[in-house]
Amino acid sequence: MKIACLGDSITNLGEGINTYVNFLGSETFPLVGQNVGLSGSALGVPGKPGANPALSERYVQIEGDADIILVFGGSNDYGHTDFPVDLGDPAGVDTDRLTFCGALRYLIKTLREDYPNALVIYATPMIRNDAVWYKSISLDREVKEKNAFGHSLCDYREAGKAVCRAMNCPYLDTYTVPELNPLDEANLAARFRDGVHLNDAGAAFLASWFTSNIERIWNETRG
């Protein structure tokens, strides 16, 4: 089966040439991945010019024969150093791509319409270690829990889950996977290149976790 992975730098940039997309699939659930990642890409469209195109704009790059579409984003909506995106209303119904919630609703609705045979799944952003990330890019900035719009990363995680529940869209909560928490020093050393991006071991772990959970959802909904 073909899986299109629509995401940001965690999807796009790996250690060497590998991201989690390269490791997806198993003997019982073989997958061929299309990497539709772009560094700095948020779900929503930032309110000022200069940012890379958003996931809610780039979805048209997904190949038409995708069996599964994994939307993995939100980290840049929360914490892009220059182009964050406001949260929006998790309980709303709008599809305004200038907010995270509106963009996620737009994506789920539009992907279902444009790729009617594909199973659409959303994955929440992983926990970040911004102190390590800022140091890795030589950014002299104070680490704060909330962004310029007054929202935490967990707010974006919870909002994404709420939107998915309202739209009956399956989601995977990477935020709660203990092995993918870079605030833990052992995890940071074992699976991360910095406080945000994975090394090969981390990419392989995430791919295995994604594969088993996507297989479960596929069997529950399409089996």
Describe the structure.
- With 223 residues, the chain is α/β, with parallel strands linked by helices.
- Helix content is 37%, strand content 11%.
- Strands 2-1-3-4-5 form a five-stranded parallel β-sheet, sandwiched between helices.
- The longest helix is centred in the last third of the chain and has 22 residues, at 200-221.
- The radius of gyration is 16 Å and the shape is globular.
- The mean pLDDT is 96.
Task: Return the average pLDDT rounded to an integer.
Answer: 96
Low-confidence segments, ≥5 residues, pLDDT <50?
none
- The total strand number stands at 5
Task: Report the structural category.
Answer: alpha/beta
How much helix is in the residues? 25-40%
DSSP helix count?
9
Global geometry: globular
> What percentage of the residues does DSSP assign to strands (E)?
5-15%
The Cα radius of gyration reads 16 Å
In this structure, how is the largest beta sheet organized? 5 strands, parallel
